[in-house]
Design a protein that fits this description.
- By secondary structure, the chain is α/β, with parallel strands linked by helices.
- It contains nine helices and 13 strands.
- α3 (91-107) crosses α5 (152-163).
- The two termini are 18 Å apart.
- 35% of the residues are buried.
């Protein structure tokens, strides 16, 4: 079998050396930035390579994202005869992140540690206040977890939440009666208001599409309990920025755990300052009821290896004429 060519973009720059050993079919894995015109012209697969390469990559039949999320605006720029795929490597670390966020919110482990450090080891009046530093925990069992978007990540979250005895509800494109285990109910997008009303924790696990941009707005958040917490591990713009800030500032929501932002952290230039360099135009960092992380809920060494395995499997499948996995958009004609 003749070697097939795949070009790898800068976001997965380490792939050429790591991907080749995982392949069972003959591929030449080349960094897109150093590819020659002949290599670009003959490339059968682009892996997170710049979309602009399609101007010269006329033989390409697969465009493979190395991540779960992808810009919907890319799809019209990718030729119709190219199959577009993504990866689902992040379900496990994101699901674990969500459970850690829920447990931390209920147990306040770090806050308890700080209170004990500051109150029990005293060497001057008024002496220790250890008893006053104690905290009554909130159990996770029997609380309701609402998941907006019941795909790979939503299902992984539900599986773990079920082990903690939570009541789990979700919405997706279509309702399902009876609901799949372990859900109490699975509604459609028309039931989002009901999900928000019933939930103690609301997890945003939707892809960013034109139809989901701004879906979590002031009207939807107005249905939340003032004890509810929103967790966003999807994409920032799915939630209206101002609406969330106002809900947190006024007590419409008890709190939020935010891992994804409205300004991409990848595009923020190091050492810059001022509003243009902030992850959000709003000062979420000054709100006491927000836990924030820099879009790393899906990052783990194991997830990176899983992405490589999924990419290698798709390249092997293509070479062997087998169906591709995790297809975002099928080719309009046969490859």
């Amino acid at each position: 079998m003749t070697n097939l060519t795949a070009l790898v973009g800068p976001l997965l720059g380490a792939v050429p050396s790591q991907l080749s050993p995982l392949l069972n079919t003959p591929w030449a894995i080349i960094a897109a930035a150093s590819a020659t015109p002949a290599q670009i012209a003959s490339a059968v697969a682009l892996i997170d390579a710049p979309i602009s390469m399609f101007q010269d990559a006329k033989a390409t039949k697969i465009y493979q994202y190395g991540w779960t999320g992808y810009p919907e605006s890319d799809l019209p720029k990718i030729p119709a005869d190219v199959t577009v795929c993504n990866c689902h490597q992040s379900s496990t670390p994101i699901a674990e992140y969500v459970m850690a966020a829920i447990l931390n919110w209920n147990v306040k482990l770090v806050e308890q540690d700080q209170r004990m450090r500051n109150s029990c080891w005293t060497s001057a009046p008024p002496g220790n206040t250890c008893q006053q530093s104690r905290h009554v925990l909130r159990q996770t069992k029997n609380l309701t977890l609402g998941i907006l978007g019941y795909g790979h990540i939503g299902k992984a979250i539900a599986q773990r939440a079920s082990a903690f005895g939570m009541r789990i509800i979700a919405t997706d494109k279509r309702a399902q009666i009876p609901p799949p285990t372990p859900l109490a109910w699975l509604g459609s997008d028309a039931d989002n208001w009901r999900l928000v009303e019933e939930s103690d924790f609301i997890v945003v696990a939707l892809p960013l599409l034109n139809s989901t941009r701004g879906l979590v707005n002031a009207a939807l958040l107005s249905h939340a309990r003032n004890t509810s917490v929103l967790i966003n591990i999807a994409r920032g713009p799915i939630v209206e920025e101002e609406a969330l800030y106002d809900a947190l500032s006024t007590g419409t929501l008890a709190g939020a755990v935010i891992d994804v932002w409205w300004h991409s952290l990848h595009s923020i230039i190091p050492a810059t300052f001022g509003p243009d360099s902030w992850p959000s135009a709003y000062r979420f960092d000054l709100l006491h009821n927000v836990i924030m992380t820099p879009h790393d809920s899906g990052e783990s060494a194991e997830a990176e290896q899983e992405a490589l395995r999924e990419i290698a499997a798709n390249l092997d499948n293509f070479a062997l004429g087998k169906p591709l996995q995790n297809v975002v958009r099928p080719a309009s004609i046969e490859n």
